[in-house]
What we know:
Order of helices and strands: EHEHEHEEHEEHEHHEEEHEH
Strand order of the largest sheet: 6-4-3-2-1-12-9-8
CATH topology: TIM Barrel
CATH architecture: Alpha-Beta Barrel
Shape: globular
Number of helices: 9
Number of domains: 1
Largest sheet: 8 strands, parallel
Helix content: 40-55%
Amino acid sequence: MIKIGSAGFNADIAHFLKENRMRCAEIEFVRQIYLKKEEKIQEIKQAALINKIQLSVHAPYYINLASLEKHKIIASKKRIINSAKIGELVSAKYVCFHPGYYHDRDHEKVFEIIKFHIEDMKEQLKENGFKIKLAPELMGKLSQFGSADEIIRLNKEIKGISMTIDFAHYLARNKGKTNYKELISKLPETFHAHFSGIEYGDKGEKKHIDIDVKEFDKVLKELVAQNKEVSIINESTDPLQDLLKMRKVLNKYQKD
């Protein structure tokens, strides 16, 4: 099954999602981890449970597992782990995060650094009995670690993690030269994803914009053809209205 849903979640959004047959949502910790009070955490958990919404969490944007400064790596890992802890409390399936930056270094060296720290975090989560999966994201800027090949390779080499395939970032990173059939053929049967419209230039992503319905149709066509099970979070600038457009496209392929 393909699930679609919102970036952002509360009781009102949960009702909107259920009414429109949308089955996932992502809790966005953009600048900070704001869910701290037990009663609020339980409210979110119950809203998702009652409305049958699969949750994920997005760790704060300020993360760099390949920083040249050790204290920034430590702080980054703490943000991801703390996001995962909240995710576990609300029964989220994935914790998505931006892995880091190259800083003009050899890409293979940066891969090994980021792999090391993700493996360490995976072990920390395992030691605490967490079920939530780390899901490093495919990134849209050429200065950022996180090409499609790098994210796929991380998933293969680190057993027990997942991935976040941001299709808008994929388009931006490749300057519009997409091959969804080839990309999706390399992905596991089940994974997490983002979608939005995207503005890009020579250095990749500039900003997210409203969705391109035709582009979403191309993505869905291949996901269905290759029988993938995926939760797709809409990150456009008009999330709920664009979700309705996405629902119409999904109706062509899936009656649920």
